Amino acid sequence: MAAASSLTRFTLTFYAPPAAVAACKAAIFAAGAGRYPGPGGYTECCWSTAGTGQFRPGDASNPHIGSAGALEETPEVRVETLCVGERVARGAVEALKKAHPYEEPAYQVVKLEDF
């Protein structure tokens, strides 16, 4: 296995209703997200902020919040964390999808440059 410093780093960002954030964070951290590869041994690191999400579920949807066809605005929390290595990033996304209550969780993975 490559040294942590030589692995590609990614940022995982996701949005979840406040009541689901703790379970989502626990799932991604168990998959290895939020670990910094330095000598301090930091784990479960993330940044989060509250905001308002907006979406309109399609006619064939089964939304966790709101109803099909109706525009919905709801409180959500945006969470960002580091994933060191593609295996960790993919595992964290898989864990997030299992833990998240939404039919289609909103998330993004961004590959980081090493300067």
From TrEMBL:
Keywords: Hydrolase. Coiled coil: none annotated. InterPro entries: DUF34/NIF3_sf, N-reg_PII/ATP_PRibTrfase_C. Transmembrane segments: none annotated. One of its GO terms (molecular function) is hydrolase activity. It comes from the Eukaryota. This is ATP phosphoribosyltransferase. It comes from Hapsidospora chrysogenum (strain ATCC 11550 / CBS 779.69 / DSM 880 / IAM 14645 / JCM 23072 / IMI 49137). The lineage of its organism: Eukaryota, Fungi, Dikarya, Ascomycota, Pezizomycotina.
